[in-house]
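Query structure, 276 tokens:
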């Protein structure tokens, strides 16, 4: 288990996924930015990217077209970037192609040595029988791993509406939640409420990176959708330390990994749970 430091520096990279930039060009742009930032990283740094940022979270046709296995070039390049940057990298999510041909929406957590230490396949698929709910396979496993925050759970976008997933991660020791997302601007009020709610009810850090930009929706791609940004870092009491706007930017803050333990000792709400 990594040593838990006094402070962790968090950066949420609100990547813009627009129709005017091809996924391959966007991938190269972000990889270059990751590799080029070589300043000394003290305290430890955790970078988080959005959900399906390469193709666009709602661009089903592009998502499927760019699916690849975890042994493919994207994961290899992201691992190299984490090593070059000397950071923990929550690489957002990619479309993972399995040997069966099925595709999952898979979030990746890479340590500074380039090792893939966390792999979460999105359990709750959005679309109401369209989009990813129709074309992707749902994951089945909760993912909680050891990071500089201590025990850390991974979630993706639509998962935010299902508090039972977050309680399942708490039951595995999670005190911090890292989340990648492609949340639309028209529902950004719900995003802001729910990220704070998940933090308050679980007395945990919620560190959530949302995408920005406009891209096609679904397999046909006739309509477009705009993502809302507003990436957020919320402490265990529900206070917002940092929040993004609707444009491409880096949202950052220094986080105290001990804050959840302190909150849970001071006000032990979780001890009084009855229903499980």
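Result returned for the query:
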């Amino acid at each position: 288990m990594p040593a838990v430091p006094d402070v962790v520096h968090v950066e949420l990279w609100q990547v813009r996924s627009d129709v005017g930039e091809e996924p391959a060009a966007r991938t190269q742009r972000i990889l270059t930015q990751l590799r080029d930032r070589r300043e000394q990283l003290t305290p430890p740094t955790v970078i988080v990217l959005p959900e399906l940022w390469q193709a666009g979270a709602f661009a089903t046709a592009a998502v499927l077209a760019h699916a690849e296995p975890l042994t493919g070039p994207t994961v290899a390049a992201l691992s190299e970037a984490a090593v070059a940057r000397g950071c923990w990298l929550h690489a957002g999510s990619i479309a993972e192609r399995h040997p069966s041909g099925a595709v999952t929406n898979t979030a990746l957590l890479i340590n500074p040595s380039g090792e893939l230490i966390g792999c979460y396949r999105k359990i709750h698929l959005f679309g109401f029988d369209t989009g990813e709910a129709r074309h992707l396979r749902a994951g089945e496993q909760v993912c909680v791993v050891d990071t500089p925050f201590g025990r850390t759970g991974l979630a993706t976008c639509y998962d935010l509406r299902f508090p039972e997933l977050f309680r399942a991660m708490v039951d595995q020791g999670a005190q911090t939640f890292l989340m990648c997302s492609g949340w639309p601007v028209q529902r950004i009020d719900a995003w802001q409420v729910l990220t704070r709610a998940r933090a308050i009810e679980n007395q945990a850090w919620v560190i959530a990176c949302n995408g920005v930009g406009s891209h096609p929706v679904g397999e046909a791609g006739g309509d477009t959708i705009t993502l809302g940004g507003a990436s957020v870092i919320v402490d265990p009491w529900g206070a917002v330390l940092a929040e993004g706007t609707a444009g491409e930017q880096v949202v950052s803050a220094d986080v105290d990994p001990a804050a959840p333990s302190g909150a849970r000792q001071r006000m032990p709400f979780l001890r009084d749970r009855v229903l499980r």
